[in-house]
Amino acid sequence: MPDSAALPDEKLLSRAASYIKGCKRLVVLTGAGVSKESGIPTFRDKLTGLWEGYDPGQLATPEGFLKNPPLVWKWYDWRRQMVSAAEPNDGHRAIAQLQKLVPTTVVTQNVDRLHQRAGSENVLELHGNILTFRCFERGHQALDGVASGLDEPPICQCGSLLRPNVVWFGEALPQSVLADANKAAKLCDLMFVVGTSALVQPAASLPHIALDRGAIVVEVNPNETPLSEDATLFLSGASGLVMPQLVRLFEALN
Ligand code: APR
Question: Which of 117, 163, 184, 208 to pair with 153, CA 20 to 30 A apart?
Fold first, then answer.
């Protein structure tokens, strides 16, 4: 079991900081691991991951929603309340700080908006967000706030059920967001891949797009993933420890 409280070797951290110094366009691609230190469970971590205790087919597909709308609604309501009560952590704040120092595109699979609350701007939300709603049939946006604690989905003016504004398994990603993320991956010369199991497409292909174009890819994760072997550098550790340390080392180089 890796020790997520440990920092990677100083030499590796310094190497990553020097990559930042040399880069012109940075992409930071994130997943559930960056929010773990804010108390939000990941999906695939052993024992603590959401998909260990819940069935994605029931809870995160359009078919699951239609089969049992109250179940899906209540599960998202629980997650929404958890996200609303959570605070961004040092990893989110370090990524927001990087964005101020280097031209950076933040691309996230997370639906919790913690990057934005930490100060990141123009975040590309590949999987939407859990805090807003649209109707199932026609995609009408729910403009008024939706109360938490409801036992079933409210009804849109058009008569359809409201659903969270997230991307479920089997659904297409928002096309313009995906196009912007692909473009950023093609144009960057450095990509940090932080806190993702690198298993879910199309997000998982973004580091490979960058690598194919000659960019440096640095992975930050307490555990190895299918990307680790191909990444230029693997930094083993928790995002809330590694990312602030990288920013400190980078600032010391300037
Ligand atoms: N810092 C960095 N990484 C961490 C930390 C931490 N403190 N703690 C755990 N991790 C890593 C895990 O080792 C794992 O590789 O975060 C990763 C989380 O992986 P997943 O749970 O698979 O999350 P993610 O990659 O974001 O999942 C992608 O799958 O179910 C869908 O839509 C959901 O957006 C999600 C997508």
Answer: 117
